[in-house]
Design goal:
Radius of gyration: 45 Å
Strand content: 25-35%
Helix content: 40-55%
Distance between the termini: 79 Å
Shape: rod-shaped
Order of helices and strands: HEEEEHHHHEEEEEEHEE
Strand order of the largest sheet: 1-8-11-10-9-12
Length: 345
Protein backbone atom coordinates (compact mmCIF):
# COMPACT_ATOMS: atom_id res chain seq x y z
CA UNK A 1 0.00 0.00 0.00
CA UNK A 2 1.43 3.36 -1.01
CA UNK A 3 1.16 6.22 1.48
CA UNK A 4 0.57 9.48 -0.20
CA UNK A 5 2.13 12.75 0.78
CA UNK A 6 -1.21 14.01 2.04
CA UNK A 7 -1.64 10.99 4.32
CA UNK A 8 1.87 11.49 5.71
CA UNK A 9 1.08 15.14 6.42
CA UNK A 10 -2.14 14.18 8.20
CA UNK A 11 -0.26 11.63 10.32
CA UNK A 12 2.40 14.19 11.31
CA UNK A 13 -0.26 16.74 12.26
CA UNK A 14 -2.09 14.12 14.34
CA UNK A 15 1.09 13.22 16.20
CA UNK A 16 1.82 16.88 16.90
CA UNK A 17 -1.74 17.46 18.10
CA UNK A 18 -1.54 14.45 20.43
CA UNK A 19 1.84 15.56 21.77
CA UNK A 20 0.61 19.12 22.32
CA UNK A 21 -2.50 17.82 24.01
CA UNK A 22 -0.44 15.60 26.28
CA UNK A 23 1.87 18.45 27.16
CA UNK A 24 -1.10 20.68 27.85
CA UNK A 25 -2.72 18.13 30.08
CA UNK A 26 0.56 17.56 31.92
CA UNK A 27 1.03 21.24 32.54
CA UNK A 28 -2.63 21.62 33.38
CA UNK A 29 -2.60 18.82 35.90
CA UNK A 30 0.82 19.46 37.33
CA UNK A 31 0.89 23.26 37.21
CA UNK A 32 4.38 23.24 38.71
CA UNK A 33 8.02 22.48 37.89
CA UNK A 34 9.13 18.90 38.38
CA UNK A 35 9.53 17.94 42.05
CA UNK A 36 7.69 20.94 43.54
CA UNK A 37 4.23 22.40 43.86
CA UNK A 38 4.01 26.20 43.62
CA UNK A 39 0.86 28.04 44.68
CA UNK A 40 0.05 31.61 45.52
CA UNK A 41 -1.78 33.07 48.48
CA UNK A 42 -1.67 35.65 51.24
CA UNK A 43 -0.64 35.81 54.89
CA UNK A 44 -3.30 35.31 57.54
CA UNK A 45 -3.08 35.55 61.35
CA UNK A 46 -5.23 34.90 64.39
CA UNK A 47 -6.53 37.62 66.69
CA UNK A 48 -7.63 37.58 70.34
CA UNK A 49 -10.38 39.85 71.62
CA UNK A 50 -9.41 40.57 75.25
CA UNK A 51 -12.13 41.42 77.78
CA UNK A 52 -12.38 41.51 81.58
CA UNK A 53 -14.22 38.69 83.35
CA UNK A 54 -16.25 41.18 85.42
CA UNK A 55 -18.06 44.43 84.87
CA UNK A 56 -16.51 47.64 86.09
CA UNK A 57 -14.82 50.90 85.23
CA UNK A 58 -11.44 50.77 83.50
CA UNK A 59 -8.75 52.38 85.65
CA UNK A 60 -5.67 52.12 83.40
CA UNK A 61 -4.57 50.71 80.05
CA UNK A 62 -0.80 50.23 79.87
CA UNK A 63 -0.32 49.63 76.10
CA UNK A 64 -0.86 51.44 72.83
CA UNK A 65 -1.72 50.20 69.36
CA UNK A 66 1.32 48.65 67.72
CA UNK A 67 3.05 47.74 71.00
CA UNK A 68 4.54 44.25 71.13
CA UNK A 69 3.41 42.31 74.18
CA UNK A 70 4.46 39.05 75.78
CA UNK A 71 2.54 36.30 77.52
CA UNK A 72 1.74 37.28 81.13
CA UNK A 73 2.30 41.01 80.57
CA UNK A 74 -0.13 43.29 82.44
CA UNK A 75 -2.22 45.23 79.92
CA UNK A 76 -5.10 46.93 81.77
CA UNK A 77 -6.79 47.29 85.19
CA UNK A 78 -10.31 47.77 86.52
CA UNK A 79 -11.12 49.94 89.56
CA UNK A 80 -10.60 47.35 92.37
CA UNK A 81 -12.38 49.10 95.29
CA UNK A 82 -15.61 47.07 95.43
CA UNK A 83 -13.76 43.81 94.77
CA UNK A 84 -11.39 44.53 97.68
CA UNK A 85 -14.40 45.15 99.96
CA UNK A 86 -15.93 41.84 98.87
CA UNK A 87 -12.69 40.05 99.78
CA UNK A 88 -12.61 41.68 103.24
CA UNK A 89 -16.24 40.72 103.87
CA UNK A 90 -15.62 37.11 102.81
CA UNK A 91 -12.54 36.91 105.05
CA UNK A 92 -14.55 38.11 108.08
CA UNK A 93 -17.32 35.55 107.48
CA UNK A 94 -14.78 32.77 107.12
CA UNK A 95 -13.09 33.79 110.38
CA UNK A 96 -16.44 33.62 112.23
CA UNK A 97 -17.25 30.18 110.78
CA UNK A 98 -13.84 28.85 111.76
CA UNK A 99 -14.27 30.07 115.34
CA UNK A 100 -17.66 28.36 115.59
CA UNK A 101 -16.16 25.10 114.35
CA UNK A 102 -13.23 25.39 116.76
CA UNK A 103 -15.64 25.90 119.67
CA UNK A 104 -17.62 22.80 118.75
CA UNK A 105 -14.48 20.71 118.29
CA UNK A 106 -13.14 21.80 121.67
CA UNK A 107 -16.32 20.61 123.42
CA UNK A 108 -17.43 21.82 126.85
CA UNK A 109 -14.95 23.64 129.01
CA UNK A 110 -14.14 22.16 132.44
CA UNK A 111 -15.74 25.18 134.08
CA UNK A 112 -18.99 24.55 132.15
CA UNK A 113 -19.04 20.93 133.34
CA UNK A 114 -18.43 22.02 136.94
CA UNK A 115 -21.20 24.59 136.66
CA UNK A 116 -23.62 21.96 135.31
CA UNK A 117 -22.63 19.56 138.09
CA UNK A 118 -23.22 22.23 140.71
CA UNK A 119 -26.62 23.09 139.24
CA UNK A 120 -27.58 19.42 139.33
CA UNK A 121 -26.48 19.11 142.97
CA UNK A 122 -28.44 22.22 143.94
CA UNK A 123 -31.54 20.93 142.16
CA UNK A 124 -31.18 17.58 143.94
CA UNK A 125 -30.94 19.31 147.35
CA UNK A 126 -34.01 21.41 146.55
CA UNK A 127 -35.90 18.25 145.63
CA UNK A 128 -34.94 16.51 148.88
CA UNK A 129 -36.03 19.55 150.88
CA UNK A 130 -39.32 19.74 148.99
CA UNK A 131 -39.90 16.03 149.71
CA UNK A 132 -39.43 16.56 153.48
CA UNK A 133 -41.69 19.61 153.44
CA UNK A 134 -44.40 17.72 151.64
CA UNK A 135 -44.34 14.77 154.05
CA UNK A 136 -44.42 17.11 157.08
CA UNK A 137 -47.30 19.17 155.69
CA UNK A 138 -49.19 16.08 154.70
CA UNK A 139 -49.06 14.75 158.30
CA UNK A 140 -50.06 18.11 159.80
CA UNK A 141 -52.91 18.48 157.34
CA UNK A 142 -54.16 15.00 158.20
CA UNK A 143 -54.20 15.95 161.90
CA UNK A 144 -55.97 19.18 160.94
CA UNK A 145 -53.11 21.34 162.17
CA UNK A 146 -52.70 22.78 158.64
CA UNK A 147 -55.23 23.37 155.94
CA UNK A 148 -55.37 20.87 153.09
CA UNK A 149 -54.26 23.61 150.71
CA UNK A 150 -50.85 23.71 152.42
CA UNK A 151 -50.41 19.99 151.75
CA UNK A 152 -51.42 20.45 148.10
CA UNK A 153 -48.96 23.33 147.66
CA UNK A 154 -46.16 21.23 149.13
CA UNK A 155 -47.00 18.37 146.74
CA UNK A 156 -46.82 20.82 143.78
CA UNK A 157 -43.48 22.23 144.96
CA UNK A 158 -42.16 18.67 145.26
CA UNK A 159 -43.10 17.89 141.63
CA UNK A 160 -41.48 21.11 140.37
CA UNK A 161 -38.30 20.45 142.31
CA UNK A 162 -38.08 16.91 140.91
CA UNK A 163 -38.47 18.19 137.31
CA UNK A 164 -35.78 20.82 137.83
CA UNK A 165 -33.40 18.22 139.22
CA UNK A 166 -34.01 15.95 136.21
CA UNK A 167 -33.38 18.89 133.82
CA UNK A 168 -30.13 19.74 135.63
CA UNK A 169 -29.00 16.11 135.37
CA UNK A 170 -29.65 16.12 131.60
CA UNK A 171 -27.75 19.38 131.22
CA UNK A 172 -24.81 17.83 133.07
CA UNK A 173 -24.82 14.80 130.73
CA UNK A 174 -24.89 17.07 127.65
CA UNK A 175 -22.00 19.13 128.97
CA UNK A 176 -19.95 15.98 129.51
CA UNK A 177 -20.73 14.49 126.07
CA UNK A 178 -20.11 17.74 124.18
CA UNK A 179 -21.73 18.95 120.91
CA UNK A 180 -23.50 16.69 118.42
CA UNK A 181 -21.61 15.23 115.48
CA UNK A 182 -24.24 16.73 113.19
CA UNK A 183 -23.53 20.21 114.56
CA UNK A 184 -19.81 19.73 113.93
CA UNK A 185 -20.49 18.53 110.37
CA UNK A 186 -22.72 21.55 109.73
CA UNK A 187 -20.00 23.86 111.05
CA UNK A 188 -17.43 22.21 108.78
CA UNK A 189 -19.74 22.68 105.79
CA UNK A 190 -20.21 26.35 106.68
CA UNK A 191 -16.44 26.83 106.83
CA UNK A 192 -16.08 25.20 103.39
CA UNK A 193 -18.83 27.41 101.95
CA UNK A 194 -17.29 30.58 103.37
CA UNK A 195 -13.85 29.50 102.13
CA UNK A 196 -15.28 29.05 98.61
CA UNK A 197 -16.89 32.49 98.84
CA UNK A 198 -13.54 33.98 99.84
CA UNK A 199 -11.76 32.20 96.96
CA UNK A 200 -14.36 33.52 94.52
CA UNK A 201 -13.97 37.06 95.87
CA UNK A 202 -10.19 36.84 95.50
CA UNK A 203 -10.55 35.48 91.96
CA UNK A 204 -12.84 38.37 91.06
CA UNK A 205 -10.28 40.78 92.52
CA UNK A 206 -7.53 39.12 90.47
CA UNK A 207 -9.74 39.43 87.37
CA UNK A 208 -9.51 43.20 87.63
CA UNK A 209 -6.07 42.75 86.03
CA UNK A 210 -5.98 41.92 82.31
CA UNK A 211 -2.91 39.98 81.11
CA UNK A 212 -1.70 39.02 77.65
CA UNK A 213 -2.45 35.32 77.01
CA UNK A 214 0.11 35.01 74.19
CA UNK A 215 2.92 36.90 72.49
CA UNK A 216 1.80 39.31 69.79
CA UNK A 217 1.16 42.97 69.17
CA UNK A 218 -1.72 45.29 70.02
CA UNK A 219 -3.82 45.60 66.89
CA UNK A 220 -6.66 47.69 68.30
CA UNK A 221 -7.28 49.63 71.52
CA UNK A 222 -11.07 49.60 71.66
CA UNK A 223 -11.88 51.17 75.06
CA UNK A 224 -10.17 53.83 77.15
CA UNK A 225 -9.66 54.49 80.91
CA UNK A 226 -12.92 55.66 82.46
CA UNK A 227 -15.09 53.54 80.17
CA UNK A 228 -17.46 51.00 81.72
CA UNK A 229 -16.86 47.47 80.46
CA UNK A 230 -18.27 43.97 80.87
CA UNK A 231 -17.28 40.44 79.76
CA UNK A 232 -19.03 40.97 76.42
CA UNK A 233 -17.09 44.16 75.60
CA UNK A 234 -13.53 43.64 74.28
CA UNK A 235 -10.98 46.14 75.52
CA UNK A 236 -7.97 45.24 73.35
CA UNK A 237 -7.24 43.14 70.28
CA UNK A 238 -3.98 41.16 70.11
CA UNK A 239 -2.70 39.87 66.77
CA UNK A 240 -0.81 36.56 67.08
CA UNK A 241 1.92 36.91 64.47
CA UNK A 242 4.12 33.91 65.29
CA UNK A 243 3.48 31.59 63.67
CA UNK A 244 1.48 32.96 60.77
CA UNK A 245 0.17 30.99 57.85
CA UNK A 246 -0.20 31.47 54.14
CA UNK A 247 -3.71 30.78 52.85
CA UNK A 248 -3.43 29.23 49.39
CA UNK A 249 -5.28 26.85 47.08
CA UNK A 250 -3.98 23.76 45.29
CA UNK A 251 -5.54 22.10 42.22
CA UNK A 252 -7.34 18.82 42.65
CA UNK A 253 -4.81 16.78 40.59
CA UNK A 254 -2.03 17.70 43.07
CA UNK A 255 -4.05 16.78 46.14
CA UNK A 256 -2.91 13.16 46.13
CA UNK A 257 0.73 14.18 46.60
CA UNK A 258 0.07 16.65 49.41
CA UNK A 259 0.22 15.72 53.10
CA UNK A 260 0.12 17.62 56.39
CA UNK A 261 3.61 18.07 57.77
CA UNK A 262 5.31 18.53 54.41
CA UNK A 263 7.99 21.20 54.23
CA UNK A 264 6.95 24.47 52.60
CA UNK A 265 8.98 27.50 51.52
CA UNK A 266 7.30 30.93 51.60
CA UNK A 267 8.64 33.95 49.73
CA UNK A 268 7.37 37.48 49.33
CA UNK A 269 8.06 40.37 46.98
CA UNK A 270 8.60 42.54 50.08
CA UNK A 271 11.77 40.57 50.89
CA UNK A 272 13.47 39.66 47.60
CA UNK A 273 15.70 36.62 47.90
CA UNK A 274 14.45 35.82 51.42
CA UNK A 275 12.98 32.35 51.97
CA UNK A 276 10.89 31.54 55.03
CA UNK A 277 10.83 27.87 55.98
CA UNK A 278 7.46 26.49 57.03
CA UNK A 279 5.27 23.41 56.91
CA UNK A 280 1.86 22.37 55.61
CA UNK A 281 -0.41 22.44 58.64
CA UNK A 282 -3.87 22.09 57.11
CA UNK A 283 -5.40 20.65 53.94
CA UNK A 284 -9.11 21.19 53.48
CA UNK A 285 -11.33 18.17 52.95
CA UNK A 286 -13.85 20.23 50.98
CA UNK A 287 -13.43 21.45 47.41
CA UNK A 288 -14.07 25.11 46.62
CA UNK A 289 -15.13 27.10 43.58
CA UNK A 290 -17.15 24.12 42.34
CA UNK A 291 -19.94 25.40 40.07
CA UNK A 292 -22.04 22.21 40.16
CA UNK A 293 -21.85 18.49 40.80
CA UNK A 294 -18.74 17.07 39.13
CA UNK A 295 -19.70 14.72 36.34
CA UNK A 296 -16.85 15.05 33.82
CA UNK A 297 -13.06 14.92 33.90
CA UNK A 298 -12.95 18.48 32.55
CA UNK A 299 -14.76 19.82 35.61
CA UNK A 300 -12.59 17.83 37.98
CA UNK A 301 -9.53 19.74 36.82
CA UNK A 302 -11.20 22.99 37.94
CA UNK A 303 -11.45 21.97 41.61
CA UNK A 304 -9.17 23.55 44.19
CA UNK A 305 -8.58 22.84 47.89
CA UNK A 306 -7.60 25.34 50.55
CA UNK A 307 -4.36 24.77 52.48
CA UNK A 308 -2.48 26.54 55.24
CA UNK A 309 1.29 26.69 55.13
CA UNK A 310 2.51 27.72 58.58
CA UNK A 311 5.74 29.68 59.00
CA UNK A 312 7.64 31.04 61.99
CA UNK A 313 7.62 34.82 62.13
CA UNK A 314 9.60 35.88 65.24
CA UNK A 315 10.59 39.27 63.77
CA UNK A 316 7.09 40.08 62.53
CA UNK A 317 8.16 40.55 58.92
CA UNK A 318 5.21 38.69 57.42
CA UNK A 319 2.09 40.77 57.90
CA UNK A 320 -1.62 40.25 57.48
CA UNK A 321 -2.73 40.22 53.83
CA UNK A 322 0.80 40.14 52.36
CA UNK A 323 0.85 38.27 49.00
CA UNK A 324 3.26 35.32 49.07
CA UNK A 325 4.42 32.40 46.98
CA UNK A 326 4.31 28.95 48.57
CA UNK A 327 6.61 26.25 47.18
CA UNK A 328 6.10 22.74 48.48
CA UNK A 329 8.88 20.28 47.58
CA UNK A 330 7.40 16.90 46.66
CA UNK A 331 9.71 14.10 47.85
CA UNK A 332 9.56 10.60 46.48
CA UNK A 333 7.97 9.54 49.75
CA UNK A 334 5.38 11.96 51.07
CA UNK A 335 5.93 12.89 54.71
CA UNK A 336 3.06 11.59 56.84
CA UNK A 337 1.97 13.18 60.08
CA UNK A 338 2.57 16.67 61.40
CA UNK A 339 5.92 17.64 62.98
CA UNK A 340 6.36 19.14 66.40
CA UNK A 341 5.49 22.83 66.38
CA UNK A 342 8.83 24.47 65.53
CA UNK A 343 7.73 27.87 66.88
CA UNK A 344 6.72 26.45 70.27
CA UNK A 345 8.49 27.76 73.34
Amino acid sequence: MVITRKQRLIAVVAVLVIAAGGAYLYVRRAGRPAGALTVYGSIDIREIQLAFNDSGRIATIAVQEGDRVHRGQLLAKLDPARFQDAVAQAQARLAVARQVLARLLAGSRPEEILEARANAAAALATWHNAKKTYHRNAVLAKEHYLPQQASDDARQALAVARSRWQAAEQALRLAIRGPRLQDIAAARAQVAADAATQALARKELADTLLYAPEDGFIDNRILEPGDMTNPQSPVLTIALDNPVWARAYVPEPALGELRQGMRAVISSDSFPGRRFDGWVGFVSTVAEFTPKTVETTQLRTELVYRIRAYVCNPQGQLRLGMPVTVTIPLPARPVHGQPRHPCAR
